[in-house]
Amino acid sequence: MTIVTHSRTAKRGTYTPSAALVKDVLAGRAIAIARMISRAEEGYPEAAEALAELYKHGGNAHIVGITGVPGAGKSTLVSALIKAYAAEGRKVGVIAVDPSSPYSGGAILGDRVRMSETAAAGGAFVRSMATRGHLGGLTRATLQAVDVLDAAGYSPIIIETVGVGQDEVEVVTAAHTVVVLSAPGLGDDIQAIKAGILEIADIHAVSKCDKPEASATVSALQGMLSLGGGSGSHWTSPVLPVSAVSGERIAELKDAIGAHWAHLHDTGELAARQRAICKTRILGTARHLFQQKFQQESATLETHIRAVTERRMDPSVAARALLGWEEIR
Amino acid sequence: MTETNLGDAATAEAPETIRVLVAKLGLDGHDRGAKVVARILRDAGMEVIYTGLYKTPKDVVHAAIQEDVDVIGVSLLSGSHVPLFRELCRCLREEGAEHVLVVAGGVIPEQDYAALLESGVDAIVPQEARSDLIVTTIEGLIAARGRI
Amino acid sequence: MTDTTLFSTQAIDNIRESQAEWEEGALAAFLKTRPEEKAVYETESGIPLKRIYTAADVADIPAEELGFPGAYPFTRGVYPTMYRGRPWTIRQVAGFGNPEATNQRYKYMIQTGQTGLSTDFDLPTLLGLDSDDPMAFGEVGRVGVAIDTMEDVDRLFDGIDLEKISVSLTINPSAWVVYAMFVAVAEQRGLDLHKLTGTLQADPLKEYVAQKEWIYPVRPAVRLLRDLIMYSAKATPKINPVSLSGYHLSDVGGNALQEIAFTMAFTISYCEEVTKAGMDIDDFAPRLSFFFISHQDFFEQICKFRAARRVYAKIMAERFNAKKPESMRLRVHVQTAAMSLTKVEHHNNLMRTAIQALGAVLGGCQSMHTNGLDEAFAIPTEEAMKLAIRTQQIIREEINVTSVIDPLGGSYFIERLTKDMETEMWKMLDEVQERGGAIQLVEEGWFQQKLADSAYATFKKIDSGEKISVGVNKFADEASSTADVHIHPYDDHCTQLQIDRLKIIRANRDDARIKSLMAELVEQARSDDVNLLPTTIELVKAKATLGEICSALREVWGSYDEPMIV
């Protein structure tokens, strides 16, 4: 059984240098934006300068992180938000992050299944990203993708991740506004608590509010938050029941996201948030670079592992040596 | 193949990940094959974006561009492959995305192969094809096209 | 009922003893010189198979589990005389192009000896879209006949006496509209509605998990079926308003156990909906019908039919307290397995289909569609359909398999496997129940995930060569080509003709009346306890189109978003 291919006019591609893509990204051309995101994701050194240039043009977008346990209905919710924003004529960007297979490194990314494409989405830009298993690299790649969309004029930009795994949570906390989605009936307890992501929420959403169990989840969350006490901030995280399926109360969620953004501006909290985000990004990227460096210098790492195993060296001396902070004796 | 200086890009630490949009076009609800292929490609280390059912050619091209995929794979069992692939390839050209490779699968009689290739389809995968052949064909098409 | 075993304890002990002797002696010696080809033997669905079955393997099965044909629990067949009284109905499905093209094919098949009609609809019709809808691009009249208005239904059955021949309609999410058109045509012809016979597929839950044709979210779709069942029970009592379809579950990857267990789970949900609405189980259950596949694993398929009859009978008797025997008998239409057909050396498909058809007969089916040998390419040609009909006729007329009822009954192997399959089906049904019932699990994508996993597992077996397809992954002939296979041509003018007819219809009808009826229908849809059929019938009589009616209700119920399952 053979596969028939088109030999006569096989497609040829040409590599457009990243520097040449910048202009098109700023002009909002989808192909250039998408290509630039790919290069950021792959970590092409060739693209570094272009990404740095695009970064200068950013800083205008409201970045919204949405997370929740699997099955909570995140992509349905995001799809409903896209429609709501599109109806207002806003250019929404979405980065939907899903896990890569630990076995093959591949992934199946299905967020588009629930997103209507051209008709209802208006000018939305939706990009699916796999975690690719790189430590710290996810934050770097995702936020560089956000930079590209930001420079292209998208706002809000939604980052959607599964709220399990340190990297996925870290990405979401690098947003201006964090929405944590809980679903009723997935367990006795609120799953977000188990996943440890409750405290990062600026807004709580409870999905499937048409189900009878939803109100119990809402009151449980409200009860929990009232115990938390004041954190110095004047923002009280609202608990909003939503039903993405029927589009119910999506407007309320959208308004709450807008209200939080206004709150950040009005109280001056935005500067602190921005600072925290930059810190996360720098440290996250640094961690990723260290990781890469060790992988590239695996021979040195091997030498150190052997030395530590044989107790000729202690782990902390080896680590410092690996970072080039101390000579090996 | 067009010779291009990739500069530092060629030395990127990880091999470039292949991204494939597995799509269903039109009203055909048979998604068994599309889902099996999605898993095959994932298990071969590719990133697969699955569109779900009932997409128009325009929808699929829109998604393929935003996702910056190397390949669009469409499985059709409804017999309407000739008009739908023609429209898909036309939309790709219209959007300036001819670099995206198009692979057709499903129930496609050999009698229609010429028409599909003519309209811009790059490869036709028969239902009986083994998984390794599907994977190497995609890899081969991308290698021949070159990095973009 | 007392449990009586078929064999004496003494006889079983003797058999066990001599089997042990045989295993340790002759068998062990033989295995040393010639080991068996495989380490493990099992059915397609993974039930382990022994080397040989004896009376000891069926000693625990009470005689009542077998019973007699036409009597509870119907293991041996649903009618007392089975094929001696009336052979199964040869019911080849057909549908393509405009209604008159399909009508011609019907007349040809009746002339060839077909005894029942069956209609395939094109995708726009199935999904509630008119032929001029932009989403219908390229699909009109392609995999079935295009129906937009009741006039199309009239053309489809032109010159065919609907009081005499039974008509099966393979229609799903838009079934209630097509039923309305069918009734309207019958009334227009002055026919007695009580004499109409036939079947609608109209099985919504399996659509969401298998065939994937949907319009509305799950619950409104089930409500439409409920309305159809309840209306049909009174207005057209000899029509089966639903054909619960395991075939598609198999087609999408399900094994024989999943096919039956999931179908039964859906059956339970439908029966609950109808009885909740106040109809007695015995007033509609006799008209529930079923549609299963006859697949490749020959004995497993035969046992599947037997086990399914038993499971259904018990569900109806024990769970729903049905009283009439007709409520407990599982009448099944069978289609051979399209998935087993190959493009390569496509003549081999004749043999595959013949064997699967024989399995369906030995399993006790009531009607059958045998696939055309060219169905791996396109919908079948006239010639291919003739061969398919001949296949059934040869089984029926030439090889004397219809004289004895349930001829394999009593085989140690058949009875053991039937029982094992039944046990596994109950386990699956219990799990569905524990997880909240079929409707909820469809919404959550539970069935979808099970079937996708099963499909991938099957693919892996084929890919590795463990599951053999002759001519494809074993005995492949590199020189074979399929380029010269004659396939069914598509009529390019079919779309335009449908569109032109829609234009004429829309220009010549009472729009004000349609508007007010449509408003009424929408209002009725908002409350759960009104039957939508009467107003729908009025609408189709007023020349409202299928697409108009379906889209009006989309405004009330919204459309369905599939869960992300790969």
TrEMBL record, chain A:
UniProt cross-references to CDD domains, sorted A to Z: MMAA-like (cd03114)
PANTHER family named in the record: LAO_AO TRANSPORT SYSTEM ATPASE, LYSINE/ARGININE/ORNITHINE TRANSPORT SYSTEM KINASE
Identification of the protein by name: Methylmalonyl Co-A mutase-associated GTPase MeaB
AAA+ ATPase domain sequence ranges: 60-204
Record keywords, A-Z: Chaperone, GTP-binding, Hydrolase, Nucleotide-binding
Top-level taxon of the source organism: Bacteria
InterPro entries in the record: AAA+_ATPase, GTPase/Isobutyryl-CoA_mutase, GTPase_ArgK, P-loop_NTPase
Pfam families assigned to the protein according to its UniProt record, in alphabetical order: MeaB (PF03308)
Matches recorded under SMART domains: AAA
Gene expressing this chain: meaB
SUPFAM superfamilies: P-loop containing nucleoside triphosphate hydrolases
Gene3D superfamilies reported in the protein's UniProt record: P-loop containing nucleotide triphosphate hydrolases
Record-stated family: Belongs to the SIMIBI class G3E GTPase family. ArgK/MeaB subfamily.
Automatic annotation (TrEMBL), chain B:
Coiled coil: none
InterPro entries: Acid_CoA_mut_C, Cobalamin-bd, Cobalamin-bd_sf
Cofactor(s) needed: adenosylcob(III)alamin
Alphabetical UniProt keywords: Cobalamin, Cobalt, Isomerase, Metal-binding
A Pfam family matched in the record: B12-binding
Domain B12-binding residues, every copy: 17-148
Keyword Isomerase carried by entry: yes
Protein name: Cobalamin B12-binding domain-containing protein
Organism, scientific name: Shinella lacus
Record lineage: Bacteria, Pseudomonadati, Pseudomonadota, Alphaproteobacteria, Hyphomicrobiales
From TrEMBL, chain C:
Name of a matching Pfam family: MM_CoA_mutase
NCBIfam families registered for this protein in UniProt: acid_CoA_mut_N (TIGR00641)
Family annotation (PANTHER family): METHYLMALONYL-COA MUTASE, LARGE SUBUNIT (PTHR48101:SF1), METHYLMALONYL-COA MUTASE, MITOCHONDRIAL-RELATED (PTHR48101)
TM region(s), chain numbering: none
Keywords: Isomerase
InterPro entries per the UniProt record, alphabetical: Cbl-dep_enz_cat, MeMalonylCoA_mutase_a/b_cat, MMCoA_mutase_a_cat
Domain of life where this protein originates: Bacteria
Residue ranges occupied by any Methylmalonyl-CoA mutase alpha/beta chain catalytic domain in the UniProt entry: 43-558
The protein's name: Methylmalonyl-CoA mutase
